[in-house]
Amino acid sequence: LDRYRYLLEGVVRCTLNNNPTTKETRLRIHTRQTVSKAIAGLLALGMLAGCAAPEETAEPEAAEETVEEAVEEPEPVEEEPEPEAGEETTEEEPEVEEELEPEVPSELSAGDFSFADVQVTSDFIDDFEVRARVTNNGADKSFVSFTATIFNEGSVVGTALGVVDNFESGATKTVTFISLDDYKDFDEVEFQVDTSF
Q1: At 132, which helix (H) or strand (E)?
Q2: Does the pTM of the predicted model rise above 0.70?
Q3: What is the pLDDT of residues 171-195, one digit of tens each?
Q4: What residues contact residue 141 under an 8 Å CB cut-off, 6+ apart?
Q5: Contact 109, 115 (CB under 8 A)
Q6: Could you tell me what percent of the chain has a pLDDT over 90?
Q7: CB under 8 Å to 185, separation ≥6 — which residues?
Q8: For residues 154 and 118, what is the distance between their CA atoms, to the nearest angstrom?
Q9: Is the pLDDT of residue 153 over 80?
Q10: First CA to last CA across the chain, in angstroms?
Q11: Helix (H) or strand (E) holding 163
């Protein structure tokens, strides 16, 4: 500002020196007043420029709305306890009912012969087949023929024939009885002597 003041005074002085008048004193006073006003104006502008703060444009922050959503808690699920290390998990298998063959008396008899370890099965063509250990409790026999009758609930479901040659007294032989009847459910077996001599 001092620099501007000196410049303005210099300009005025040069003007007065080039155009001297009788009113030099009055012009100097008037010039100084003009310079003072100009300096004051410059100072005012400088103060306004320095003090003026940039306009703050504060935008109002939008209020955040919090929406609480109702969340239904899932029902707790019961989990099966995991087996401890080293323990084997065993699943219970459904019991399967096995078809058991009916029990045949351990020993049967017919005439002078006894029949033990009697087994009733199906042969290779699905017919009845009977096996038994037969003992001759009587005299020697050259030939003996037997019939095994198979029952189910009192009804005959099959018959099988068996023969023995040279059956000595007191001897025990395994005899296979052959049948032409289809194998089916049964619950009883009986033996009879057909021929003996």
Answers
A1: strand 127-136
A2: no
A3: 999 999 999 999 999 999 999 999 9
A4: 164, 166, 167, 168, 196, 197
A5: yes
A6: 46
A7: 152, 157
A8: 19
A9: yes
A10: 165
A11: strand 155-167
